[in-house]
Amino acid sequence: MAKVYFASARAKKWKYSESMPGKLERLLKETGLMDCFSPKEWVAVKTHFGSEGAHRVVRPVFLRKIVDALKRVGSVPFVTDTVRIKGLDYLEVANQNGINHLSVDAPVILADGIYGNDSIMVKAGEILGEIAVASVIHDVPAMVVCSHVKGHINAGYAGAIKNLAMGGVSSAHRTRGWKCGRGSMHTIGTGELAWDAEKCELCHQCRDICPLDAINFKDDKLVWDGDICWRCGRCERVCQSESLSLPGDDDRFMRSLAESAGAVMSTFDPKKMVFVNFLMEIQPECDCMPAADVPVMQDIGILMSDDMVSVEQASIDMLLKASPSSDSLASDKKIADGDDILMKLHNRPYLLQLEEAERLGLGSRTYEVAEI
To answer: Sheet harboring 301-305: ordered strands across?
Structure first.
């Protein structure tokens, strides 16, 4: 049975050891999980840099604690993510969100290069076939996966699996395009974007959020460049009039997340990955959106394990016990105590991610919690 270590967000005494940074230090020192890393070994600290306007990422203070712990065992850490918008812009977003060399005391780099196409094809299973894993993540021998747990309009629940599945691969391969990148999970077939002119309110949010300027409006008509589009689906997600749609399938999407995460994990030797889930500032949507709504439930704490599926199942089990926050999207939707908040928010079969990941041998949904 896998062990998941937990530190509660509650601070019941006015002592540093009761703070979340203090408790994370204890998790890193007392669990022994950092012992899997070796002196002089390069270790990636995988996180999400956020977006301009989306500030509820894993805070730099926590990334710094992980970097410090890795340095104590003699490893050589760096903080990384894959390109979500134009690469240089994304590094600036990271800096605006406080993630830089000075704050985390380690280099901050893009895992798939500033153009987002530095990747290596890896076998990924029945649905995806192959996926373009970011070259740095492919090549580095060890990794700590720091995931901000939250809701997601497509995935329903977003944690470590999605962090690897979407964040460990490129948006597009250098020569094989979007069908070997994240878009292969977001959409099916040719991935043609459909626009309903009658529903469209001409708010231009889709145009403004597109990372590649693939959407424009001419004479109040949408013009979409499918040749350069990554099929990331952001345009569809911000469209409040529901006038945009990409063809997709929920079951396929969830299972493909597990396949992609498995492809990323296959590039590491056993026991060379540690997963840290931050159940804090649990917002309803992804960190890549241009704003961060208020959390839909209270902070819960930090979970840590060397079993990805176990830490995900433990995270979900804790979320299911949480109460919805007032004055949030949860209260807007009249979600009550005892409800599955994330399911009520997005109505996605998010547990399929875990079921498929366990089926693929990526970990176990059976676990025991050890609270520090």
So the answer is: 108-110, 76-81, 42-46, 142-148, 273-279, 301-305, 2-8, 367-371
- Supply the CATH number for residue 101's domain: 3.40.50
179/199 same-domain check: no
φ, ψ of residue 51 to 5 degrees: the values are -155, 160
Give yes or no: residues 121 and 159 share one domain: yes
One-letter amino acid at 55 equals H
54 shares its domain with 159:
yes
pLDDT in tens, the chain (372 residues): 899 999 999 999 999 999 999 999 999 999 999 999 999 999 999 999 999 888 999 999 999 999 999 999 999 999 999 998 899 999 999 999 999 999 999 999 999 999 999 999 999 999 999 999 999 999 999 999 999 999 998 899 999 999 999 999 998 888 888 888 888 888 877 778 889 888 999 999 999 888 888 899 998 899 988 888 888 888 888 888 989 988 878 899 999 999 999 999 999 999 999 999 999 999 999 888 888 899 999 999 999 999 999 999 999 999 999 999 999 999 999 999 999 999 999 999 999 999 999 999 999 999 999 999
Contacts of residue 270, defined as CB under 8 A and 6 or more positions apart, other chains included, come to none
* 14 class by beta-carbon count within 10 Å (0-12 exposed, 13-18 middle, 19+ buried): exposed
Answer whether 331's CB lies under 8 Å from 320's CB.
Answer: no
Residue 303 has what DSSP assignment?
E
- Is 118 in the same domain as 198? no
Question: What's the CATH number where 206 sits?
Answer: 3.30.70.20
In angstroms, the CA 333 to CA 17 distance is 37
Residues 290 and 307 in one domain: yes
Domain boundary among 245, 269, 284: 245
Strand pairing category for 2-8 and 367-371: parallel
Centre a 10 Å sphere on the Cβ of residue 59 and count the other Cβ atoms it contains. Answer: 19
Instruction: Give yes or no: residues 96 and 150 share one domain.
Output: yes
For the chain, what is the domain count?
2
Largest CA distance in the chain: 63
